[in-house]
């Protein structure tokens, strides 16, 4: 059945995540701060009246960076080491029909930012600039199911230790003096302790130099003795 309801973004999500690599694979894993900026047609304070009584929101959004690549019937979830295939509807693959994602995020309040009504949020797993197609309150009595089975994703991912060179530590401390970068150390630690590398890299010695982009910074790191070591931070060029 086809239908003609045309879906537009109601808002754009602003996050520190400037590239897909490094974004946590689910919401709530990293305490990253972000904003939902309403699009002009929805930029009315009345449209969010009453929303502050909820602690969490469901975001429905579009995996806009992957739309051009279409979808696949089966996918190889990173949880299974990339070795086993599951059906697209049995996973949270980003390559799916209609390209729609959903995430629960924490709501911190309604604010005005750059002349726009915004929601201050945290814990999202979204790329900066992701189009939000709907927002709904999270309702614990109905949405939280205590005895739900989590399939291949029953438990949160195992975290790995993150250490820092003296140079990296010093730069993080300097950046954090600026309001814009407050919480940078926690963000870097949260992102890297998830070990963002693809599954096939985790199974063997890995001498590669990696980079993740957070805010307007490139964070350089590598693997050493079963830990991640942050080597340096540089402004993104
Ligand atoms: N919680 C959501 C869900 O279940 O629909 C998303 C899960 S999905 C596995 C999370 C990943 O989506 C992130 O790690 C990131 O790589 C990717 N991602 C986030 N925003 C995206 C976007 N706008 N376009 C494409 N991929 C995106």
From TrEMBL:
Q: Which UniProt keywords apply?
A: S-adenosyl-L-methionine
Q: Name one Pfam family in it.
A: TrmO_C
Q: Which CDD domains match?
A: UPF0066
* Origin superkingdom: Bacteria
InterPro entries from the entry? TrmO-like_N, TrmO_C, UPF0066_cons_site, YaeB-like, YaeB-like_sf, YaeB_N_sf
Task: Give the signal sequence positions.
Answer: none
Where does the TsaA-like domain start and stop, copy by copy?
7-147
So what family is this one in? Belongs to the tRNA methyltransferase O family.
Write down what this protein is called: tRNA (N6-threonylcarbamoyladenosine(37)-N6)-methyltransferase TrmO
Q: State the gene name recorded for this protein.
A: tsaA
């Amino acid at each position: 059945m086809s239908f003609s309801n045309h879906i537009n973004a109601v808002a754009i999500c602003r996050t520190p995540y400037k590239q897909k690599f490094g974004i946590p694979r689910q919401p709530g894993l990293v305490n990253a701060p972000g904003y939902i900026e309403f699009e002009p047609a929805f930029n009315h304070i009345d449209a969010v009246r009453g929303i502050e009584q909820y602690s969490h929101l469901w975001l429905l959004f579009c995996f806009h960076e992957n739309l051009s690549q279409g979808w696949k019937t089966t996918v190889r979830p990173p949880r299974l080491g990339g070795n086993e295939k599951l059906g697209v509807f049995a996973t949270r693959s980003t390559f799916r029909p209609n390209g729609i994602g959903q995430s629960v995020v924490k709501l911190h309040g309604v604010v005005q930012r750059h002349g726009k009504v915004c929601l201050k949020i945290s814990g999202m797993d979204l790329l900066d600039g992701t189009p939000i197609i709907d927002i709904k309150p999270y309702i614990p009595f109905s949405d939280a199911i205590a005895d739900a089975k989590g399939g291949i994703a029953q438990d949160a991912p195992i975290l790995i230790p993150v250490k820092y060179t003296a140079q990296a530590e010093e730069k993080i401390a300097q950046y954090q003096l600026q309001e814009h970068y407050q919480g940078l150390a926690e963000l870097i630690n949260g992102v890297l302790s998830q070990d963002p590398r693809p599954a096939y890299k985790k199974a063997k010695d890995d001498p590669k130099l990696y980079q993740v982009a957070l805010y307007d910074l490139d964070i350089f790191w590598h693997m050493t003795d079963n830990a991640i070591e942050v080597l340096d931070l540089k402004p993104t060029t």
